[in-house]
């Protein structure tokens, strides 16, 4: 029997549950192992046709609700991982069910349009719901299908922009460009690079994968573009106690960025950065760092792309994490996916629309079905002021975790995410201990993810409240005493 | 007033309409220009936030039905283009509406899972519906989000397979591989190539774009991998009158393929081919050619990928076009998207599952919502024997077009697609005349697409019947007399 049986309930510090009145008050774990026997059987059944070796367990989404995810063995976990940080509002959200059963959704699913050639008359309205959520300074959008896709579409826009600036926006292509490009050669297909950062995660296709630098397993055996990775600042925590050394760290990394831009063997057309490197270890970049990147990219004519695929949509206490930095002038593009359900990039400069049609184009040009869900998510985030709630609950959670850190400094190293909503992480001494903690947390009814080699990252939904934080902290405390 | 007013009806040779009883009996064009004034206004409105320069018109999907697409100006076109060949069953199909309003669809949309980590208990059943439609010889699937994505995921599987075969499937990576890959360098990130064909279209991301070789506008200003393109056979038509010269053309191109595999400056890990190059000009490959590619790829240890993104799902008279060639042993992977609505690749060899988890992986690993639609499409295609219908209607249409070709040989050059269902195309003398024909056809109520520089391609839905063929042939005849 696992640690927390059906009968085990944590004490609650708050009782109201406005968002999900039918949510459980505590997790429930009824199997000795996770995945439990029924999950294991279902995974074996999948294995023959679909690679499922990475499955944590097999979920029962009908029985999942709000912050709680059910599995086929009857376990019910408090979900602090939320589909790799991609569920914004919790499971079976009533407003999303309304959107999913709307007539516009049926239309979008059964008549999926080629948006570039045959936009529907509802597209403007569907887009308007996304655009009203655009980051400060951005007012246009191009849509894609996933985080990798969003970043690669942004790269395409950046490369076209970069070359158009050199060539002249309205200038025709040369005969040499037109012929060489068909052989994948310069000048039509120029050697240009995107600069990203060590530990970055921007996706797993070939260009996004070249910008990704988190783990070898993401990249091994694939050809890649010879693109550089600068150092991402690695701060001392708590931040307030180390302002001077952390500023030095920022400047050290900024110097590397500038050096690469000046000296890389092919021109750097764009720079892409996550305001918090998530998959790569929950490294936070300071506002100073993000602003200085704007200064440097402007100075050198480099396109500045901020990747908000994981950080976007409210969990950090702002709708978009980089809004904490109030970068001026705004960055050139902001990519999104995951919690937004719809993917793509926001931008503001009309020169990022290529000079001819069919340059940034594909069959579907996005997916109205998921855009409709995105619009409904955005409406809820606004109506319920969820970034504010994340800020409040995040501070509440951080304070409790900080107290645990004082008790267990060895097992809660470099606690990160103060005043960044529920975007909280810490390090364990090594991978083995981290994995052990995650396993124990699961048996204690909390589904939590790791990142990098030895970090734990918290990625609850925006419907995460103080009472959920209490459940998690109690479970964590229990696990810490056992480790 | 356009050519065909509300009052103009074509004569019908058949009257039954089992699939869409409420479908119009003829197109209706009520505007002098296409796009009409309301479409133009809606496009202008979109332009400010979403690049819509490629829009043909703004559609009203509520009013569209079966083979007919409505626009906001009140025009109703017979749709022979069908969202760039991506609508299988026609607009507002009743079976798809059932699927779109099912409880499993709501679940898939509001609780979109990270399929690799947290598959739902319904995933096996949803996948089973796809797998029963797998091409002959294939029984496993990995899912993605678009044609580009499907091809790049297949490339990843091919590169991993290729390197694993050299290294030993169960062998660990070397320290040098693990470190070099983080710098995008060999040996961890090896220089490997995918061989494709001139005029090929495999997508518009960076690796798929490197394999694409249809038009400069698809590729200009993007960095690419230095991957080669062999000649795709270009036959004399009608095929039956030119068997000898066409066989020679096959052999000429096969020799080029073999030469590239032997001599390219980096190893060729995979070969990808469309059984009919669609975007690139509706070039058909013979069964002999596709089989010989199997022989050659086996001999040289090259992975053989068939791209059925546009050709798949019945329109050619087989569910998968390459099934006409009965390739033995089967190719290694078959990629799909478009009419299938769901995207990904089918395969059969378990060694195409990487030796470790998280190598072929991403957040969503596909999209159950569109898989559910794919399953419903497949069920209809089977129940209604739609590939057989396409074969029958295609032959009917081809015969009529062949008669027109005899009358207008200059305007119907190289008529292609005999016995390939409704996958029919022909050439005009030049781009200008082709574009003029497409414009006239639109004003005659038929929405038709072009491909390559001077081809017209027909891509109706699978619900296309003899009566629709009659409407189209009458419109075409009218246009031909005017050109």
From TrEMBL, chains A, B:
Q: Does the keyword Transferase apply?
A: yes
- What Enzyme Commission number(s) appear in the record? 2.6.1.19
What Pfam families does UniProt report for this protein, alphabetically?
Aminotran_3
Gene Ontology MF terms:
4-aminobutyrate:2-oxoglutarate transaminase activity; pyridoxal phosphate binding
Cofactor(s) listed in the protein's UniProt record: pyridoxal 5'-phosphate
Catalytic reaction equation(s): 4-aminobutanoate + 2-oxoglutarate = succinate semialdehyde + L-glutamate
GO cellular component assignments: mitochondrion
**Sorted UniProt keywords:** Aminotransferase, Pyridoxal phosphate, Transferase
InterPro entries recorded: 4NH2But_aminotransferase_euk (IPR004631), Aminotrans_3 (IPR005814), Aminotrans_3_PPA_site (IPR049704), PyrdxlP-dep_Trfase (IPR015424), PyrdxlP-dep_Trfase_major (IPR015421), PyrdxlP-dep_Trfase_small (IPR015422)
On the tree of life, the source organism's domain of life is: Eukaryota
BP GO terms, sorted: gamma-aminobutyric acid catabolic process
The family classification in the record reads:
Belongs to the class-III pyridoxal-phosphate-dependent aminotransferase family.
Identify this protein by name.
4-aminobutyrate aminotransferase
């Amino acid at each position: 029997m696992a640690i927390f049986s059906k009968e085990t309930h944590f004490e609650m510090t708050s009782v109201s549950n406005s968002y999900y009145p039918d949510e459980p008050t505590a997790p429930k774990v009824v199997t000795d192992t996770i995945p439990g026997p029924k999950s294991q059987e279902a995974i074996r059944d999948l294995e023959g046709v679909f690679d499922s070796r990475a499955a944590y367990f097999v979920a029962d989404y009908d029985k999942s609700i709000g912050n709680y995810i059910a599995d086929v063995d009857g376990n019910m976990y408090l979900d602090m991982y939320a589909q790799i940080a991609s569920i914004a509002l919790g499971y079976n959200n009533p407003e999303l069910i309304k959107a999913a059963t709307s007539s516009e959704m049926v239309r979008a699913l059964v008549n999926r349009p080629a948006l570039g050639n045959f936009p529907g008359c509802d597209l403007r309205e569907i887009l308007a719901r996304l655009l009203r959520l655009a980051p400060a300074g951005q007012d246009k959008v191009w849509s894609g299908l996933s985080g990798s896709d969003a970043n690669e579409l942004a790269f395409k826009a950046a490369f076209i922009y970069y070359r158009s600036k050199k060539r002249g926006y309205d200038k025709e292509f040369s005969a040499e460009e037109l012929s060489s490009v068909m052989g994948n050669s310069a000048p039509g297909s120029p050697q240009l690079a995107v600069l990203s950062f060590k530990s970055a995660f921007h996706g797993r296709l070939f260009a996004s994968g070249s910008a990704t630098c988190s783990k070898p397993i993401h990249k091994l055996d694939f050809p890649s573009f010879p693109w550089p990775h600068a150092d991402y600042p690695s701060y001392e925590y708590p931040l307030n106690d180390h302002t001077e050394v952390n500023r030095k760290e920022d400047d050290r990394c900024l110097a590397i960025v500038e050096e690469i831009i000046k000296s890389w063997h092919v021109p750097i057309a764009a720079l892409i950065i996550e305001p918090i490197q998530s998959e790569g270890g929950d490294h936070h970049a300071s506002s100073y760092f993000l602003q200085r990147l704007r200064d440097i990219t402007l100075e050198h004519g480099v396109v500045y792309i901020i990747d908000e695929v994981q950080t976007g949509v409210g969990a950090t206490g702002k709708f978009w994490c980089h809004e904490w930095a109030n970068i001026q002038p705004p960055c050139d593009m902001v990519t999104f996916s995951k919690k937004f359900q719809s993917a793509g990039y926001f931008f503001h400069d009309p020169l990022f629309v290529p000079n001819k049609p069919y340059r940034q184009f594909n069959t579907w040009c996005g997916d109205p079905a998921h855009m409709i869900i995105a619009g409904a998510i955005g409406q809820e985030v606004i109506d319920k002021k969820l970034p504010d709630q994340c800020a409040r609950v995040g501070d509440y959670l951080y304070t409790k975790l900080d107290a645990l850190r004082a008790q267990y400094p060895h097992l809660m190293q470099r606690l990160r995410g103060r005043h960044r909503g529920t975007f909280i992480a810490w390090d364990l001494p090594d991978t083995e201990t981290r994995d052990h903690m995650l396993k124990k947390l699961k048996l204690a009814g909390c589904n939590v993810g790791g990142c990098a080699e030895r970090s734990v990252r918290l990625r609850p939904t925006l419907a995460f409240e103080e009472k959920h934080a209490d459940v998690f902290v109690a479970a964590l405390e229990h696990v810490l005493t056992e480790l």
